Amino acid sequence: MADQPTSFDLVVIGSGPGGYVCAIRAAQLGLKTAIVEKRETLGGTCLNVGCIPSKAMLQASEKFEEAAHHLAAFGVKVGKPELDFGGFMAHKDKTVKSNVDGVAFLMKKNKIEWFKGAASLAGDGKVNVALNAGGTTTLTAKNIVLATGSDVVSLPGIVIDEKTIISSTGALSLTAVPKRLVVIGGGVIGLELGSVWQRLGASVTVVEFLDRILPPMDGEVSKNMQRILAKQGMAFKLSTKVTSAKTGANGVTLTLEAAAGGSAETLEADVVLVAVGRKPYVDGLGLDKAGVKLDSRGRIETDGHFKTNVAGIYAIGDVIIGAMLAHKAEDEGMALAERLAGQAGHVNYDAIPSVVYTAPEVAAIGKTEEELKTAGVAYKVGKFPYMANGRARAMNATDGFVKILADAKTDRVLGCHIVGADAGHLIAEIAIAMEFGASSEDVARTCHAHPTLSESVKEAALSVAGRAIHM
Description:
It contains 14 helices and 21 strands. By secondary structure, it is α/β, with parallel strands linked by helices. The protein folds into three domains: 7-151 and 280-347, FAD/NAD(P)-binding domain (3-Layer(bba) Sandwich); 165-276, FAD/NAD(P)-binding domain (3-Layer(bba) Sandwich); 351-464, 2-Layer Sandwich (Enolase-like, domain 1). The strands form five sheets. It has a five-stranded mixed β-barrel with strand order 1-2-3-4-5. Strands 7-14-8-9-10 form a five-stranded parallel sheet. It has a five-stranded antiparallel sheet with strand order 17-18-21-20-19, with helices on both faces.
């Protein structure tokens, strides 16, 4: 550590997808770059306790569910499967390790200096680092990027102990499958992790304050996903708030009320997962000392091009306005690095997809019908059900649909919403279409391989003009 240089063109604070991608792109463009991370491993929340471990568990739990309930329909007899819980968790840990080790390799490959410790702004282009190994060091940088991500949010009066009342982090490291799991929050994280433990045998109840799950998504998507998940066994208490949580020898007793107020009821659980959102992680960064402004929601203010109000200090990812998505942070990191190198980096915020990795998956990009109606935009709708797709039938994966929204006058694609198998992959086609300003006719006239699920996207595009073939 003593031999590491301390003067850089760029210092990136935080090594999540936004931070490490920004560092790599800057190094590719010739900037002398350092990254500061207080964890002992790189990758931030996403790789360590977020996207990657949760997807490993989702995939493994789907395999268990498939063996238990679905393989027989394909003529495959395996008997009753047995859960090897240790092996299940080992798969998650192995997946995490391979990914964080991969990022460490990329740091070396791109000659990026990695400082292990907690960073704070010291003014005048300086960053103090309290090193994990002991002692401190001060880095000097022409430019500093704040990419510290986000942290879990709790509810008033509910204390997360990561044992019986857990956050998403705790949900990745339970020591056994709970018999009764209550998820507070019907958003992406709650539904994904609730799905994992339900497939492994937990009885799962989702409590949501609003009147539907997946609140930011298209209303039709929310309605259909609730129906599908309920069919799988997940229970829902919508328009409901949690007023207290008391732990005891037998688990947790929740007190619930209608969101609009009313008489109280109780709900018993062995484990309660609090999944009500995330907040920008800005604690301990010395923003006050450096004079960096925050907005009313605790996010770092920027000018739309990642600049803060302090010269030489920039911010990307979950700490600034916008969706808290790893790929959004990555694109911002690349765009910022290119700007710092004198190029013209840009992020198209109208074409950022989002995916819910339940089974089936949910994927969305662009505007919802509700947003277009509110904005007074005239639009056309094209829909196609998975039930009418030959490959979906062959896969026994007929739940879901593709919906494309196009401008009524120009036919330009304004949004797409998919419920169904591999939705997260299928949405990429529409992301490219929207990035290049394509019309629904452009998508419809593009040849799609047969038989594939992607034909459902083509058929939905055809349906915009009322000419779907297979429906």
